[in-house]
Design brief:
It is found in: Membrane. The protein is of the alpha+beta class and about 290 residues long. It is built from two helices and 17 strands. About 20% of the residues lie in helices and about 35% in strands.
Length: about 290
């Protein structure tokens, strides 16, 4: 039986398991993908080449392709998220996985049964999945010294947790220091310095995101120290605090007004009693003279 040339190519890239390879894993191709999106695990078997069957495996069989008497092969998949590409240039019998989740991370195998003495050829893929990064947020901490030197700390972060996320700031000047793995920028600014834009950059293997702001604008004013956050949570807490202060003020005004009315009534009652008492004393001091007949 004539051996197709593409099998020698696959064997060179991915040695078959068995003879001479006992106990060894085939070469592994590293792939990265975006959470919630799709990925294609490439097979690249030339169109028209013959084989008995191909089985895609991840913990259990995902898809089986069998050569038949008809022109189109028989394809069985275990989940609608899996699709075997057929008659696709340079991607024949590749496996497409849609709507990726964290559970899709791991090792995938494609076992190619050739039906000849070469036996089975195995291709192996390791899939890593990362989220697409949202826009980072920056929390600002200020401290203004007596010499009007403004010391600014900018802390950059993204919501949620992820792996392999790298932080950095640009540009960096003479009075800037980066700490905490690149997520925190310390800088100094004083009146007369030209304002400049600082940009936090966050990246992972599949995306990059940034947030820019002019730090000098937060140093304007007589403040000695403050903290300002760009996050909506801080703004919401500030509004709740103001509403609480307003409510307490209204209650105190109500209590004061009520007590003032009570005191006024008491004063009026005491004044009335004094007037009545004075009237009685005046009556006792008056004498009546009878005329002589």
């Amino acid at each position: 039986m004539k051996v197709p040339p593409w099998l020698f190519f696959l064997m060179f890239l991915h040695p078959q398991e068995g003879e001479g390879q006992s106990g060894e894993d085939p070469d592994t191709e590293e792939l990265t993908a975006v959470l919630g999106e799709s990925i294609i695990l490439p097979m690249n078997i030339p169109e028209g080449e013959r084989f008995e069957k191909i089985i895609w495996i991840f913990q259990s069989p995902l898809a089986t392709i069998k050569e038949g008497d008809t022109r189109e092969p028989t394809i069985i998949v275990s989940d609608p998220r899996y699709k075997v590409l057929v008659n696709s240039p340079d991607q024949n019998y590749s496996l497409k996985i849609s709507n990726l989740s964290r559970e899709d991370e791991g090792t995938y195998r494609a076992n190619i049964f050739t039906g000849d003495p070469l036996g089975t050829i195995t291709r192996k893929f390791t899939l890593r999945i990362y989220r697409r990064l949202p826009k980072p947020k920056v929390t600002i901490y200020l401290e203004i010294s007596e010499e009007s030197m403004c010391n600014i700390t900018l802390k950059c972060h993204v919501d949620g947790s992820g792996d392999d996320e790298e932080y950095g700031w640009t540009p960096l000047g003479a009075r800037t220091v980066v700490s905490d793995g690149g997520s925190v920028l310390h800088l100094s600014w004083k009146p007369g310095d030209s304002d400049f834009t600082s940009t936090c950059i966050v990246r992972n293997p599949v995306s990059i995101s940034s947030h820019s702001l002019q730090a000098g604008q937060f140093c304007i004013g007589p403040r000695t120290s403050s903290s300002r956050s760009c996050s909506p949570l801080a703004k919401g807490l500030s509004i709740l605090l103001l509403l609480g202060i307003l409510a307490v003020g209204i209650i105190l005004i109500g209590i004061f007004t009520k007590n003032k009315k009570t005191i006024t009534r008491i004063h009026r009652g005491m004044k009335l009693r004094r007037n009545v008492k004075r009237g009685k004393n005046a009556d006792k001091g008056v004498s009546i003279t009878q005329p002589h007949l």
